[in-house]
């Protein structure tokens, strides 16, 4: 395994997502691109499935306390405000994006978690996508495995977030939480993801 220097998590221009021929474009024409991040993750051409497993692991004990506290507050508010009930989710308030998938993607095997709020859409050798829905929005998490000449093994990871807010309420909610996402959520999430990937590669 190639030793690599510490990598920096950073937001990157939207063109890093929109200019690539990702399959996710086929089913998200009515979604807005919210964020694009370069992840502190590098690997070889066949490593995306292993990275997805590491990133989407259910156990959050390796996340910073501030991150876990913020999400505990978020889920508590969701219960009080009724934003996360089943009636607000996929197949109820919004149709799942799996219904839009072309046949070749729909027939690919996926792994679901019983505890994650995200529902996997598809996994290829270069892309992973999952969706989530509640009273405020319908969202997509997209991971891209991109060729990178600066990466020792040739590839690095990018994460994009797409959303379709639920009316004015959803737009206001997304605007209100944006400072918290950039100040706390994304830095903590992506640092931890990078650490998980280092661990996953070290035991491979």
TrEMBL record:
Pfam family, one: DUF2867
Naturally occurring in which organism (per UniProt): Nocardioides albus
Matches recorded under InterPro entries: DUF2867
The name this protein goes by in its record: DUF2867 domain-containing protein
């Amino acid at each position: 395994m190639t030793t690599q220097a510490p990598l920096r998590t950073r937001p990157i221009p939207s063109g890093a997502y929109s200019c690539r021929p990702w399959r996710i474009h086929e089913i998200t024409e009515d979604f807005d691109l919210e964020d694009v991040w370069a992840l502190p993750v590098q690997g070889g051409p066949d490593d995306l499935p292993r990275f997805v497993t590491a990133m989407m692991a259910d156990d959050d004990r390796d996340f910073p306390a501030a991150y876990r506290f913020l999400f505990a507050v978020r889920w508590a508010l969701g219960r009080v405000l009724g934003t996360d009930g089943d009636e607000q989710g996929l197949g109820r308030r919004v149709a799942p994006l799996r219904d839009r998938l072309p046949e070749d993607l729909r027939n690919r095997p996926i792994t679901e978690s019983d505890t994650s709020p995200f529902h996997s859409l598809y996994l290829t050798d270069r892309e992973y996508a999952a969706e989530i829905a509640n009273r405020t929005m319908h969202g997509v998490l997209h991971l891209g495995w991109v060729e990178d000449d600066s990466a020792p093994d040739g590839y690095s990871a990018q994460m994009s977030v797409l959303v379709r807010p639920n009316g004015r309420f959803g737009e206001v909610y997304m605007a209100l939480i944006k400072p918290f996402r950039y100040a706390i959520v994304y830095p903590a999430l992506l640092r931890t993801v990078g650490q998980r990937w280092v661990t996953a590669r070290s035991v491979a």
